[in-house]
Amino acid sequence: MTPEHYAALRAVVALLGPAVPGALEITREGIVHDPRSPGGPHELTAARVSRRLEKVMPEGLLAHTGTPDVEDVHEGVMRHPDVMVIAEADMEVEGSFDPTALPAAIEVVSRSNPDNDWVGKMRDYPLLGIPVSVLFDPRTGEGAVLSDIHPTPNGPRYATRTDFVYGEDVTIGAWTISTADLPRYR
């Protein structure tokens, strides 16, 4: 993707984003629309995971569920993790966060577009240099922790995948939290 093409996509997202329900993100393939609606099991899972992480992380780190996005203009990718582990100091910037500042990105798999999380973001997060990515899937009550970025002919990918089921403890980077009582989609 050329810098001009990325700038044009970024302008479209900035213009339409506030008026479009859900989230607009940019990948190398173009704009991705996730028409998720706020609330319900998706947001409750993100909130519970965030709170549980913040209880075990050191002072100065947050499990942030808000905005802005993470963006690498050079790679032509702008994504919005549901939960971002990030140092408070790395949040003191204007515009998007630097994805390489995130020790981990966490996704709650969307009911409306699960491939965006399981396929697209799992392709883009190692490309952005995010060392650990975790998926919580309220559709199945299962998830996965991906880590150990390594090069492949198709670009960087995670080499290690550790699956879990809701109810087990899960280790995200250096921190272990419970997955008990996480909601499921009905």
UniProtKB/TrEMBL annotation:
This is Uma2 family endonuclease. It holds the Pfam family Uma2. InterPro entries: Nuclease_put_TT1808, Restrct_endonuc-II-like, Uma2. The lineage of its organism: Bacteria, Bacillati, Actinomycetota, Actinomycetes, Kitasatosporales. It comes from Actinacidiphila bryophytorum. SUPFAM superfamilies: Restriction endonuclease-like. The keyword Hydrolase applies. One of its GO terms (molecular function) is endonuclease activity. The keyword Hydrolase applies. Residues 25-146 form the Putative restriction endonuclease domain. Keywords: Endonuclease, Hydrolase, Nuclease.
